[in-house]
Amino acid sequence: MATPLPAYVAQRRADWDALQALLAKQRSGTLKLGELRTLDTLYRRASADLAHAQTFYAGTDVHRFLNQLCGQAYASIYQPPRERWPAVRDFFRREFPATLRRERGFVGASAVLFILGILLGALVVLWEPRGAELLVPSGVRHYVAQGRMWTDDILSVAPPNSVASGIATNNLTVTIVTFALGLTGGLGTLFLLVNNGVHIGAISALCAREGMLGGLLDFIAAHGPVELSILVIAGGAGLMVGQALIDPGELPRGQALAVRGREAVKLVLGCAPFLALIGVVEGYVSPGDMFPTWLKAGLGLVLGALFWAYLLRAGRTEAEATGAPADSAS
Question: Is-contact 264 182, C-beta < 8 A?
Fold first, then answer.
């Protein structure tokens, strides 16, 4: 004889609630590795309960509830594998730019820190010329003292393909380090952003004081807009990680770091191909006088505009277009 329905529900309800809770954690990206086995066990028990309900309680609310619960669990556990290239295409078409737009506050804060560093470095050198001895590398100061750009000899040392490869590798390293220093509570990322800004500002001010600002702008015009934008985006990713460590909200600190870290990693991975592209520009176009300054500046402005147009427009949802709040994906 079947157990009365209220008694059966009271007996099994704890497992069903636990399964629902684990499915919710899986959807939010906070499910721990050790909970996967529990999820599988509870799903199998719920499937047995569904078979029991089909036999003894068919057509009841409990039968319908279990049918829906088991369907959700099956869809979550046995997701079909995503094809690699469609997944990559979807990432760059939608996920990467959408993540940047969601996290624009952190990217904006990164940009402010970087610009403050530039202003600080420039003001120090312009106010006190001896400040260049502290803020500008000695090799750069040596070239400037001779009235020469330190970038003039790049192509004489190595061919453009080697230069482009080395630059891309260096830029990727800087991007990853800027992001990873978010694990210091964001302090390392903050320091790196301000420090890089100070160096750029100090070198620019030194070149301006010595009448060589045009040569500096000639070198950075083609690659600078995209390269510096990527540094700022990596800084935003690092600040996201730091914020998760300092203020995890209602989640345990480890889970908050995992959730926010996944979003931050999307920003860093999304920048990788653009770093490779801009490394080619910096290796082939930026150094030397093969290309006139106006062409370098035009190329830099076009690449920068296309890069930000892509980030701000690609994969926009209807909610974003109308300004309505949209759920963030994890």
Answer: yes
Residue pair 294/223 in contact by the 8 Å Cβ criterion: no
- CA angle at residue 132 from 129 to 133, to 5 degrees? 110
Which range has the worst mean pLDDT, 4-18, 60-74, 158-172, 241-255? Answer: 158-172
| Cβ partners under 8 Å of residue 30, min gap 6 | 251, 255, 258, 259
Q: In 186-294, at which residue ranges do the beta strands (DSSP E only) sit?
A: none
Residue 289: which H helix or E strand, with range? Answer: none
* Domain spans of the chain, in order of start: 5-77, 86-316
Q: What is the pLDDT of residue 154?
A: 63
Query: Does 319 score more than 60 pLDDT?
Result: no
Radius of gyration (Cα) for the chain, nearest Å? 27
Joined tokens for residue 159: 């061919």
pTM given for the model: 0.71
H or E stretch covering 34: none
Which residues does 118 contact at the CB level (< 8 Å), separation at least 6? Answer: 197, 198, 200, 201, 204
Amino acid 137: pLDDT: 86
Q: Which single residue is written with the structure tokens 């994969």?
A: 315
- At position 33, the amino acid (one-letter code) is L
Give the pair of three-digit tokens for residue 107. 């990217």
- Rounded to the nearest integer, the mean pLDDT of the chain is 85
- Give the 3-state secondary structure of 43-112: HHHHHHHHHHHHHHCCCCHHHHHHHHHHHHHHHHHCCCCCCHHHHHHHHHHHHHHHHHHHCHHHHHHHHH
